[in-house]
Structures are given as C-alpha cells and as structure tokens.
Amino acid sequence: MSATTPIATQCHGYTPVPMALMTPDEVPAVDLYRRDLNTGRLQLYRAANVPITQDDLNKLAETQINWLYAAEIDPDEMQMVIRRKLDALVRDDSVGIRDRFRKLNDIVTEVLSSAFEVNNTDEIVSSSAEIGQLAVRVLCEDEMTAGDLISLMHHDFQTATHSLNVAYMMVILARKMHLVPDSELSAVAAAGILHDIGKLSVSDRILSKNDRLQRREQRVAQKHPALGFNRLCRRVDISFAQLMVIYQHHERMHGRGYPVGACDDEIHPWARLCSVVNVFDSLISNRPYRKRYPLHEAISMMDEHLSDGLDQEMYRCWKQYILKK
Ligand SMILES: [Fe+2]
Fold first, then answer.
1. Residue 163 Cα to ligand 1 middle (Å)
2. How far, in Å, from the CA of 321 to the mean position of ligand 1?
3. Domains of the chain: which residue ranges?
4. HSE, side-chain direction, 13 A CA sphere, residue 324
5. Which CATH number is 74-323 given?
6. d(Cα 118, Cα 215) in Å, to the nearest integer?
7. Residue range 165-194, pLDDT digits in tens
C-alpha cells in the first residue's frame, strides 16, 4: 500500500475486496473490477471464471492496487470475511510479529480510511472496538521497540492513519504506565482511533490546507474536540473515559489548551495519555505545510517547547521508551 496516497475505497454499489488478505485459492469467484487510478472509474479486472494467480496478486501489489471491487458480494458477508481473516492473521504465530503488524496495519488503515471517508460514525465506532482488540493482541504479544513500532507505522497525515498511530502509541504508553488493567487496553486503543472523530465535521479545505491556518480557520479547527464529543456523547457503547479522550486531548496541564482551558487533574488520565502521543505523532508525521521531523528532533522540540503542557510523568515515560535503544 502506498504510504502517501489516500485511497478512496468506496465505489457506489460495489463491495471493496481487500487484496492484502487474499491468497489465490481464496479469491471470491465473482466478477472483480479494479479502479483506474487516474480516472477513478471501475474496469473489469477479472471475470468470475478466470483464476487469479499469486503472480497476479504480486502485480496488483506493485501497482499499489489494494482493493478490487465486486458487484455480487454482500458487503456484510465481506466484512465478516475480513474480520475472520484479520483475527486469524493476528493469531498466526507462524508469521513473525513484524509481518503480522505490518499486514494488520495495512488492512485496518484501509478499513478505517474507508469509514472516515464516508463519514459513517457507526462504522467507525464498531471498527474502532474491533481494531482495538486486534491491535492490543499484536502489541502485547511481544515487546515491540519504539524503532519497530514507528518504522511500521505510516506517516502521512490523514485523520485515519494518524488516529491509528495514536491508538497504537496510547496502548504502549498505557502499558508502560500501568494505567489500566490489560483487559481495558482495547478500550484505550479504540479511544485513540476515535480521538479526532470531530474532524469529520471540519471542512477538508481547513484540514488539508497547505499553509499555516489563519486565526479564524484555527478557531474552526479547534472546535473538533467538542464536535467529536457531541457526535458520540449519546451513544451507549462509548465509555466516559473514551469520551474524555475525544473532548480533552488538546487540553494542557498548565490550562492553556482547548476547548475550555482545563488543567491538571481536571484532565482525564486517558486524555493526558492521548495528548502526549498525539503531539509526538503530529511531529513525526508529514503535514500539508511541513515535512515530518526525525525522531530525536521531535523529542528535542517537545523538550524545548511543548512538553510543559503535558503530564510530566507520562511524557518522561514516553521519552524513555522512544530513546531506548
Ligand atoms: Fe485533535
């Protein structure tokens, strides 16, 4: 998958079929279409009666085609297949942890991008819960070093990718801090995935602007924690702690954050956790207006300018993890 190209997975009336989970013997026996990368139109790629070989799958991967489309598959059935295969992939200890993580990351980034793309809150919330469980299983199985984790994550700045990165890092930091019992780590991961969901209500023009935002635009962008809170606060499948991550992840310990300028203990511990890794991931990610900073430079910048608003104990713990060889 391309690390820099946002991939539109939605094509009205067609069900996306992810290539990363397919093997030649498991390709669905229906007509499959591929999307022309230039025009966005679907073209017949393979008729139902023609087999797909491993070579074909490799060629698709080389051309950065990650999804094919089918008109005759029930989307719910496809979702079940994806979930079953992801689950099997995560459990398969004959495959190295790095490969499992890489594949998991590829698939869930696509699934999440797709849900964010169509602004489907229900899908995002249910995906986040499932992805949270899968991510925790992989992340907890083996001590993944910071270098491993970061080299495996993608650093383009898209809300879905960023959210996933934040989720992974929140799980690592929550474990290091012994903040929650292991049984709650998947809820922490889900909170990470959801933390920026309010950005779905902020115009793309502002979110992907190439220059720094003007004051007025900044005020609009800064509404995303409250917008996210409003979007999810009436749901019964979101916990108070998760809601606080969404609402308070831009609050700062010194009270100069937003939306309300809460400080110290007024900020929920899960939100403080999110703030630390959110700042870090923003620095190590490409933004529309700047390139990403190398790891050590990102930590220096946090030390010099940004860490005073963060929970100091959490920041120290994160820094120790990142700088550990
Ligand atoms: Fe945010």
1. 9
2. 23
3. 1-73, 74-323
4. 12
5. 1.10.3210.10
6. 29
7. 999 999 999 999 999 998 999 999 999 999
